[in-house]
Write a structure and sequence with these properties.
The chain contains three helices and two strands, in the order ααβαβ. The chain has a two-stranded antiparallel sheet. It has a domain of about 25 residues. The mean pLDDT is about 85. It starts with a helix and ends with a strand. With about 50 residues, it is mainly alpha-helical. It is elongated and about 55 Å long.
Amino acid sequence: MRLLAGLTRITPVIPATATILGLVPLAIGFNINFETLLTHFDPQIHIGETM
């Protein structure tokens, strides 16, 4: 009975956590150049604003 109640309470927390973790790279400006990753195996990873 307690396990079912715990599962019911944790169910909405899982998608909310996944959304927050998915938006962190957007918030910090994480960028991977997939074109050079696939052609030259060089991802050119940048964090933050590029000018």
